[in-house]
Amino acid sequence: MIFEMTTQVRVSNIKEGREWYETLLNKKPDFTPHDGFVEWELIPGCWLQVAEGTLTEGNGPLRFGITNIEAERDRLVAELKIDSFEIHSRPEVPVKWGTFTDLWGNRLGLFEYLDKREEQERIKPIIGTLEV
Questions:
Q1: Is the pLDDT of residue 36 over 60?
Q2: Is the CB of residue 29 less than 8 Å from the CB of residue 18?
């Protein structure tokens, strides 16, 4: 039975990587077990690891579900100087989404449910309420 998950991105400089991801996630790391490695618990049991090391190509995108993609895109463009961040949608897809890269080439993105009732139903078991 799977009960937790982690995903890892690599950065060439852990100090810069930590600062960049602190800005992206709007919080300090939840766990720093040793030099060159930090982790954030994004939602219960779902961890993002940022590790200093050899950069990888072609990974991702790792997309984060949010409730207002336009506002979050505007924040990230302003605070992290992200150049290319288009928001996409298709009639048959229940979300709109956008993809961007961090300073190390890791592909990241955001998505937002179009049906706000579905969004709230997905959020409820995670945070225990329908109020976001």
A1: yes
A2: yes
